[in-house]
Amino acid sequence: MPSEQHSLEAILSQYAQNRDSLIPLLQDIQEQFQYLAPEAIAAVAAHLNLSENDVYGVATFYAQFRFVPPGLHHIRVCEGTACHVRGSDRILESISRSTGIAPGQTSEDGKFSLERVACFGSCALAPVVVVDDKVYGRMTAPKTQKLIEEKK
Amino acid sequence: MSFKGRQQQAQAIWEQFTQPGRLRVLIGSATCGRAAGALEVKQAFHEALAEANLTETTDVVEVGCLGMCFAEVLVELRGSDGTRVLYQGVEPRHVKDLVQAQLINDEVYAPLALAMMGESGTEIPAFDKLAMIAPQVRVVLRNCGIIDPTDIDHYLARGGYSGMARAFELGPDQVIEEMKGSGLRGRGGAGFPTGVKWGFARSSVADQKYVICNADEGDPGAFMDRSVLEGDPHAVLEGLLIAGYAIGATIGYVYCRAEYPLAIERLQGAIEQMHQEGFLGSNILGSGFDFEIKIKKGAGAFVCGEETSLMQSIEGKRGMPLSKPPFPAVSGLFGKPTNINNVETLAAVSAILEKGADWYSGYGTEKSRGTKTFALAGKITRTGLIEVPMGIALSTIIDDIGGGVLDGKPFKAVQTGGPSGGCIPAQFFDLPVDYEHLAEVGSIMGSGGMIVIDQESCMVDMARYFLTFTENESCGKCVPCRMGTQHLLRILTAITQGKGTIDQIETLRKIGDTMKKASLCGLGQTAANPVLTTLRYFEDEYRAHIEENRCPAGACRALITFSIDAATCTGCGACKRACPVDAISGEKKQPHSIDESLCIQCGSCRQVCKFDSVHVQ
Description:
Distance between the termini of chain B: 73 Å
Number of strands of chain B: 18
Largest sheet of chain A: 4 strands, mixed
Distance between the termini of chain A: 29 Å
Helix content of chain A: 40-55%
Structural class of chain B: alpha/beta
Strand order of the largest sheet of chain B: 2-1-3-4-5
CATH class of the largest domain in chain A: Alpha Beta
CATH topology of the largest domain in chain B: Rossmann fold
Largest sheet of chain B: 5 strands, mixed
CATH architecture of the largest domain in chain B: 3-Layer(aba) Sandwich
Helix content of chain B: 25-40%
CATH class of the largest domain in chain B: Alpha Beta
Structural class of chain A: alpha+beta
Oligomer: heterodimer
Number of domains of chain A: 2
CATH topology of the largest domain in chain A: Glutaredoxin
Number of strands of chain A: 4
Shape of chain B: globular
Number of helices of chain A: 7
């Protein structure tokens, strides 16, 4: 798409052609396009004079980067220690069951994607689920089921 | 304007903010407050104030975290008579009543009142006297929840940047002596004396040096750094500037987790204000010192909390650690001498320079000076962010500050130090909390996560949980960590599934010991700690899994069955509706039963049962 192409170039032009621009650049691109498409990786590699292999090497090292588009509703389940002792594994399982997807996947209809996150730092509200940047605290399996039904 | 003049100007603004006369609404709006609905409450206040024609005469301000996370959303109201009352658990539906009572009638709204700020002449306790607050000493958290973190005037008025001004008077060498005198040790986990570390970096000769603030708070279960960055960003940035001045660095980086967007926003705003005030740029306050601060967002790798990995990440590489020496103080970021401190350390630095080394070293124990923040979470009544003098008894933290284990259940253990730390069992309940004592029992101070565990948590499962984390986060560079975490996790998983063998207990110890000795960085050297400490104190639980196919805590799903007690079941049907796999059957008002062949041990039925009729075996 021409407009996207344009804004990809616009993002690239804001960054100096140094190696230390790599991670901020990838973060910016993901924020704009929700994920890192192969074309974006190639463009970044060309801009910074790195090999695509190098760029993939860095991008895959960090948990933040995605290589497939997320679903309409992006669900993140906190797996921090506080959430774990308060039953986050059951929350994750319940969401998997209601949406039919495993962590790291996007549902076939593109409605949901599911991700495990190490900790949101909202431990006082454990267990925590974040849907589209809204935080839901003190979750239970029945509460998550209801939440997913509402979003369907 | 001179710095003194600027301070006086800020104090005038602060006085206006704190003097009675104007009505005031302070809303705890850090990430945790927001998650609990702080912004919705704020909106409700705006609406209620407009309706009551009070918009013009009331200040509504978002403040950081007071640390009483269990009571979110927290709102402090000041009425026209100057009375300040802290309210807990505020929801939008309460706001109209609160405005009517406190702001219009000058009466306390009793149902939600938690404490009186300042003196209390009523039945409601004074804030400082609350069981959760009284044992605390707030140095790092001195401004959190009290000032508007987006207003540099508030920070200046409460003594902010006078540490910087004093540092310029003392000169770099004296600043380092001051840090040594304070006894401050790195709060990121390892506890290395900060002044000594600065001394190393100062004595390195180079055309360019760097200082870095490590705000990559990756320990699951820890949120101290986030709260400080959100509630008082200038305290950290001032500390970073002082560190830069002391070692002779002109560029500082804050490496902050991308998962903390509000912290990053607050840092960006604060850096802009520093520029406007002339606290960044060239020749700051006429000292001849030039300094700039840049923010780098982490991209989600736990190993980047390790200093050499963090620097690799700033350079745009995979965050893999390097062997030391050379130490960062000699060759760090871009090959230049670099000093790296964590958020809490730097927030203490600005206070120490302001108030002096003697003041700070007056707190704590002989070898562990000062105060330490902890994120208190897990199965505890009052979850929160606390700051206590080093050496305080663990029991004071858990019983007095935290209000004891949730639902009055017996205390089993507390996990400190996150994935690098260990579980401290109930027999050490009176242990003084400082670097030495925690190390003695096999745990570490770490960055300050403190997760309380009750009888429902299985210690083998806890170890498995942490190894799942470290196995995933191991960067893979060195063999002991890469293979060690994999094997530990494989064995622990087998044990929690009832497939373990007795000789594996020794294997776990051997692998853990090897990882400790042979891993390249702190991640691998400490990753076995959760296994080794649970083995040390809870070997009987491991044995029960292996020898009796039994999980004493009733947590490991392969080893438990759920059943309904027909004597107490009322047949309400709540469990039947909650069961995701239709394993529960029964007529209305008749005792229900669970079909074991269908049950997936998810525990939903137990969670919804109001009569405690669902049992685990």
